[in-house]
Amino acid sequence: MRFVTRRFFFYLVAFFAAATFNFILPRMMPGDPITAMFSSQGTPLPLESLEALKETFGFIDGPLHLQYFAYIKSVFTWDLGYSVQYYPQSVNDVLNRSILWTLFLVGVSSLISFSIGSIAGIYAAWNRGGVFDTLFSPLSLVMQSMPAVIISLLFLFTFGVALDWLPTGYAYNIDLDPGFTYAYLSSVFEHSLMPIITLVIVQVGGYLITIRNNMINLLGEDYIVMARAKGLSELRVMLNYGARNAILPSVTTFAMTIGVVLGGSLITEYVFNYPGLGNTLYQAIVNRDYPVIQGQLLMMTLAMLSMNFLADMAYVFLDPRLRNA
Amino acid sequence: MISISAVTKLASRNKKASVGLSILLVYVMIALFANLITDHKPSKRVARPHQEPSMEHVMGTTRMGRDVYTQFVHGTRTSLAVGFSAGFIIMALGTILGISAGYFGGKVDEVINFFTNIALVIPQLPLLLVLAAFIGQSSPTTIALIIGFTSWAWGARVTRAQTMALCKKEYIQSAELMGESKLRIIMIELMPNLASIIGANFIGSILYTVITQATIEFLGLGDPLSVSWGTMLYNAQTTSAMHVGAWWELAVPATAIAILGMALALMNFAIDEISNPKLRTFSGLRIFNKRIAILEYEKSLALQEARA
Questions:
Q1: Interatomic CA distance for residues B235 and B254, integer angstroms
Q2: I need a surface site. Which of B120, B221, B252, B257 has the fewest CB within 10 A?
């Protein structure tokens, strides 16, 4: 239990630090971005909201520490202000609209990569030097080093433009009404195919290599020899003795990669014009919609922190030594 | 620090390393001699827009009628310069922070480790995009700096763990008992044994930087007047090269990034294999066995001669 509470407090502090960073960032830039935003762009924002917006981001008149408290208050009450480009919608409205699509892409692709990567990694380590290992281990490393932008552009060009097999934009056919109908769900599936495959390719190699290298280090241990000597089946030794221990670091990798996947999803969504958080961030950046940019950064940090916390919990479950620590 | 002889030794001992290193060297040559192997500035308009690859323009031309080959050569220079300089910053920060935390321990470790852990849980790419957006039309130098100073955490953590493991070894403890200075212990005793981790960190960081720079610029947050692989992708995308069938405009920078990524990945894989022999596949062992067999054979020949 102590382990869990300690981790929880660490993540709380980390969130605080990220929020503080988010506070400092616009203040390090020349000028006051919110005034700049109002003066440079023909925004649909009424002038009265300038003060409100400044307040939301702590740009109120007064000493820096008061600004900071006002800002922290708005962060912890999750009152992120109004979007500039979609006024009068609030930042929350804008983010809520897109977060489910990103969760869908990131969640599905992470689970697929984790499963395929782990199973392939275990198999490669077990048959080290075999055909599968010599072929796929270096290949997965190469795949891991391919940026999402290249893979998604390649898919977009091949299957979206040249062959014209798959749709190249949006999350579903906009002529359809969202609902649990076959037509709608299959349209969602079709539209998500290329983004998900892209994200799987970006991630899967990392899992394969992590678990393969861990497993190879473990296979020389005495308890593996012992399990074999007891006459247990190969499959049992491989899965219950080797893989169970080798998978621990992969759980950390799983949480760590969420950051990478969020980044990858960002660019993938942009290329496939998919209406998730990434596309929202891109639109916000292009339109200098600072409230949305900042809210988005906070949201992504929060997502990453909670994933790390979940991974810690999973660790406790998988490694009994931590339960009493 | 990592001397040339060490690099050549690495390349000659491992096939993956030699392939990776050769590709990297070709890129470095292209970057160094960019002015010699091109005839004009990359921004010069030399032909009609969207010409297919031909003898005159081997990689075709862009929408603006610029030669893609010239852009590629000069883009290589920018992308590599950004990759190497940010990679160096990341490596230096990671090494200094990692060794300090791992070797000095106590309060130093607590402070460094705390900041490392926080930097690790803040999503990188979104943060970089936001930074680049706030700065506005970031030049390649700016991009190198913001990547360099925000991406050191992973290297610091790995270096710290390895330093802590090394500090438990007897030779470090005996060096301390002999009263060697801390600086000497770090430079002479620790550094050589951390070389593979520092090297892997450097290579991984170059790769990460090149990819991230391309991503930032592809999204249009870079300086549109600079020529790099990222801005080439950006220009191709904004002039909808893909939809008018000008595939070469996208394919050239994309392939350039992909091949560099492959080369650096191979080098990192090789470093892993050399520093952790367990990870090697049996092909290396076979050569080793063959050498033993040859030695045995020569020994028996010598014995026979001696008897005769």
A1: 13
A2: B120
Residues 153-172 of A with CB under 8 A from B: 153-154, 156-157, 161
Claim to verify: residue A10 and residue A113 sit in the same structural domain: no
Are B258 and A150 within 8 A, CB to CB?
Answer: yes
Same domain, A243 and A290: yes
Closest CA relative to residue B270, chosen from B5, B2, B21, B4:
B21
CB contact under 8 A, A128 and B118: no
User: In chain A, helix, strand, coil percent, each to 5?
Assistant: 75, 0, 25
Query: B282 pLDDT exceeds 50?
Result: no
Nearest to B127 among A138, A286, A297 (CB): A297
Q: pLDDT of A224-233, one tens digit each?
A: 888 888 888 8
Let me know whether B127 and B143 are in one domain: yes
A90 in a domain, yes or no?
A: no
CA-nearest residue to A287 within chain B is B133
Same domain, A122 and A194: yes
Contact between B168 and B136 (Cβ < 8 Å): no
What is the least distance, in Å, from the CA of A180 to any CA of chain B?
Answer: 33
Bridge partners of B67, per DSSP, are B61
Residues A33 and A102 in one domain: no
Q: How far apart are CA A282 and CA B234, in angstroms?
A: 14
- Same-domain pairing of A55 and A26: yes
Give the number of domains in chain B. Answer: 2
Find chain A residues with C-beta within 8 A of B269's C-beta. 137-138, 141
What is the pLDDT confidence band of residue B131, given thresholds at 50, 70 and 90?
confident
Terminal-residue alpha carbon distance, chain A: 7
Considering only CA atoms, give the Rg of chain B: 24
Question: Where residue B1 falls among pLDDT bands split at 50, 70, 90?
Answer: very low
Dihedral of CA atoms B158, B164, B168, B171 in degrees, nearest 10, equals: 80
Task: Kindly identify which residue of chain B lies nearest to residue A150, measuring between CA atoms.
Answer: B254
Provide the domain limits for residue B308: 281-308
Indicate if A123 and A6 belong to the same structural domain: no
* Mutation target among B129, B154, B221, B272 for the A interface, most CBs of A within 10 A: B129
CATH of the domain at B69: 1.10.3720.10
User: Which of A27, A48, A77 is a domain's end point?
Assistant: A77
DSSP annotation of A324 reads: -
- Asked if the C-beta of A249 comes within 8 angstroms of chain B's C-beta atoms, the answer is no
Distance between A179 CA and the closest CA of chain B, angstroms: 32
pLDDT tens digits for A187-231?
878 788 888 998 898 888 888 888 888 888 888 788 888 888 888
pLDDT, one tens digit per residue, over A105-156 is 888 998 999 999 999 999 998 888 788 888 888 788 788 778 888 888 888 8
pLDDT tens-digit readout, A73-106: 878 888 777 777 776 778 888 888 888 888 888 8
Q: Please report where in the chains the tokens 């998500």 appear, as a residue.
A: A192
Q: How far apart are CA A9 and CA B117, in angstroms?
A: 13
Domain that holds residue A213: 95-324
A·B CB contacts under 8 A: 137
